[in-house]
# Entry
Amino acid sequence: MARVMSSPKNIVITGSSRGIGYGLADAFLQLGCAVTVSGRSRESSAAAVGQLAAQHDPSRIFGLACDVTVPAQVASLWQESAAHFGYVDIWVNNAGYAGEMGTAWERPAEEVQSVIATNLMGTILGAQVALRGMLRQGHGAIYNMEGMGSDGRRHAGLTFYGTTKYAVHYFTESLAMEAKDTPITIGGLRPGMVATDLLRDRYKDRPEDWERVKKLFNILAERVDRVTPWLAQQMLSNHRNGAILTYSSSWKLLWKFIRSPFVKERVFE
# Structure
């Protein structure tokens, strides 16, 4: 059963019109928080707000479009969210872009720039804006979505995505070090392999490869609605600066393999 909070927290989540971001918004709302939902376009943001408002108290939901690669839009996301709810308790830098799968020398420069701008610069800009605002209000926490590559592991075909996530981890640890004498908590999120469109879209032009890897994903991947409530609870309860909140583990993955012949889970149909 969801825990209702005596003092509601106000949460801002970038890239929350779908996938893990949307799942986090839903989970925080289940826990009694107020949430600012943000997608790249007005249409996607409005659609997410409508879907969430059909399940939760609409007065606790605010939506705003934000391209995290544009500094003015990131600043506006903070300003309008803080004005709407009075303050921001937790800011989640979730917006991400993987690009198409392929060897590093095959990917076009425009795509590489977009991956870097969204995953790395978007996280940096969001953290800068949120940290300045939280220092003014005197409290708050910032969490950066890490993901594949943040722990140093490599995946062929996703070199640039993994590179940005490795950089995000370094940035998170460095920012936590710099903020250690402030009232602001800095942390990272590692959800593991989650069944989202971001994972499926890597294979949209390669249906044969998708059918091959789908069997493995059905063993290893977790559902959004299983991972995001755990992450939301951890963010609300964590007070340790520099914490990396990790859902998956080598033991969990091993257990999934062991039970796979007996428990058939279909995260992807």
